[in-house]
Amino acid sequence: MARQTSARERQTTHFPAFETDAPIDHAASLDPFQALVKRLSECYGPSGSEEQIRDLVRDEIKNFVDQVRVDALGNLIAQRRGSGSHRKKIMLAAHLDELGLMVTFIDGRGFCRFGALGHVKPLTLLGARVRFGNGTMGVIGCEANHAASDEIDMDALFLDLGVTASSSPSVQIGDSACFVREFVETGDLLVGKALDDRAGCAVLVETLRQLRKSPHDLYFAFTVQQKVGARGAGAAAFAIQPDAAFVVDTAATNDTPGAASGGVALSQGPVIKIRDQGALTSPSARQMLQHAAREAHVSIQLDVKPRSNGDSMPIQASRQGVPTAALALPIRHHNTTSEMIHRADAENTVKLLLALLSKPI
Q: What is the domain class of 7-98+193-358 according to CATH?
C-alpha cells in the first residue's frame, strides 16, 4: 500500500547487504503490508492467550497514537486525539485472537485430549501441527479404530507431543495451542492461518499509518476472546463510550464450487455486514460507511449471514447503545489454517476507513 514515509521512518530503514550463499529470506520479498500480515498471521495468540500478538500489535502502532493501554481483560486500546472543535468518539475494533485448542486431559503416555477454542472443524485437524505458548510442538492424531471413518469425531482425536518413555509432557491441563501454518502470497492473494482477524488488525494498523489527521477522537481497540463469545469487545466499548463504532472483521465468500450463487466474492470490495448472529447493523453507521465508500470511490458488497458472529453485538449493546456497523474483508476457506484474502479488498478497506475518519460525521 503506497504512502509517503516520514523522515523518521526513512532514517530507521535498514537495507541488508548482499551475502554470497546466504539463506533466502522470503519475507524480504514482501512489501510492507504483506510483511505486516505475515507477522500477524504467524504469531501465537489463541483465545485467552493473546499476550504475544498483543505485544506485536502494540509495537506496530506505538509511533502513530497518543496513548496505549491494556484493560483488565487484555484488550489493547489505542487513542489518537482529533483536531476538531466538536470531536466525536469513534471506536474501531478488530479481534486479536485466533482459533486454537486447550488441553483437557493428559494420559500416562503423554498423549493429550483437547477441546476447541472457537469454531474448529474436526475434518481439518488430522495431521495438523500446533504450537503452545512455550514453543512446544504437537501433531494431531486420530484413534486407530476411527482412522478409516469418513467423519471424524473430535473426541477421537488426540495431540501427540512426541513424549517417550524417558521424557514427560512439557504442557499441562489448561494450556492452549494455536495451529502452525506458514503464510504465503501468490500474486494478489494472501494465504495463512488466523487471517480472521489478523487481516482486520493489519487494516487498522495500516489505517493508523496512513491517516494524517482526523476531526474525531479515535479509539483503536484490538480485542480479545472473540472466538469464544466476543467477550473483550463489550468491555472495551463500555470503557470508551463511543459515539459510533466500526468493527473490521472478515466475511466468508460464496465464490467457490458448490456455494450458493451470488453473495460475497474475493476482489469485489469490502463487505458491510447487514446482519450476523447477534447484531443488526445500525442504519446510521451503515450510512456513514456507504457515504465514505462513495467518497473514496470504493465498491462495497452487502452481506447477511445469520449464523456468523462477531464483535458487533456486545459493542452495540454497551451502556445505552452504540451505533455500530461491521466492515469485513471477503475471506475464503474460513476457519481453516489456509484462509485466503485478496490484497485489493484490504487496500480498499483502508481507503474507505481513511475517508470515513478524515471528515466530520
A: alpha beta
